[in-house]
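Bug #77: duplicate submission created two jobs. Keeping one. Sequence:
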Amino acid sequence: MIYLFGGILAFILFLVYDINGVIFQNRLLSGSFMIGVILLGGSTFGIVFTSGDLIRTSVLRMVIFGSLAVVCFCLLIYTLFFALPFQDTYLETGGSPKIYKDGMYALCRHPGVLWFIGFYIFLGLMLKIPLLIAAVVVFSLLNLLYVVFQDNWTFMKMFSDYDLYKKETPFLLPNLDSIKRCIKTI
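Kept job's structure:
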């Protein structure tokens, strides 16, 4: 159960990071996102490796759902840490940074959520650990709430052109046009 609370604390740290970035800009708090990532990863690792159910997973289940979990995890890492051209995205141009809306971010405004939820669902299906299933639900809901907060507060304050991006790009569920733009610009 402590691992579930660790994951919840991670999302609180993500909120602290966003609020700090917009309001306080305190250097000490700027590490809260990375601490949250480590805490969420550690919580997930703890659930998986302390349950004792890992060895009961069938090879077929491990191959199918494990492969899908790995794909989603790789897409999540790519989307959050490598899909954005950091210098172009976060350097101020004319007083306010510009939103990046190509590649993964042409697909939808929060593509990381898709890969995050996919990773946890496939991990849960692979292992069928009751606490992990609870974490899938709790962490996915917290992630959805977090991106709603980002979409309506954080990014509206950070990016001068976020309103236009909201009009052009779906929130979470890609459509045919956004899929085409994603493929074209990736």
